[in-house]
Amino acid sequence: GSDNCPVSVTINGTAVPALSMRLSASGPGLATFAHSSGYKPDPAILLSLISSGTLREGENDVVYSNVYTIKGKTRSRAARGRVFVWPSDTLLVVSDIDGTITKSDVVGLVDSIGMDGTLSHTHGGVCEFYRGLEGKGVKFVYLTS
């Protein structure tokens, strides 16, 4: 199986062995950092990645990859994500989309942007409100399931 298999971490195309992980036998999809057996990376490692330029201010691409063998066949899998790095005094809004910006989860996803480019299924005023915040330097991260 894939329990306790190594997971390599790449940030912006650079392999970062200091952040290597291991898939856990504790449950499906759980991984711990090899350097600490915990779920959070060592802050000193993150600071060194920032000072070296591996982690840059703004958006950073991260790839978690794992090579494993099952029933005699070698397989690989990868998960991609983003890590955002901003100064500690950055104003940040983390917003859900479905039902927060859109009027419903399903219909909002499909019908939010009409064929003529209008926003037909969003809550009134939310886009203008967010644009106003962005104009004041607020950063946004949008989440959806």
Largest sheet: 6 strands, antiparallel
What's the alpha carbon Rg, rounded to whole Å?
20 Å
Total beta-strand segments: 8
Amount of helix: 10-25%
Helix and strand pattern: EEEEHEEEHHE
Basic shape: globular
Category by helix and strand content: alpha+beta
Structure description:
This protein has 145 residues and is α+β, with helices and mostly antiparallel strands. Helix content is 19%, strand content 34%. The protein has helices at 43-52, 105-111, 126-135; strands spanning 6-11, 14-15, 21-23, 31-33, 58-70, 73-85, 92-96, 139-143. Strand 5 and strand 6 (73-85) form a beta hairpin. It is globular and about 55 Å long. The model has no long low-confidence stretch (mean pLDDT 81).
Task: Please summarize what this structure is.
This protein is of the alpha+beta class and 145 residues long.
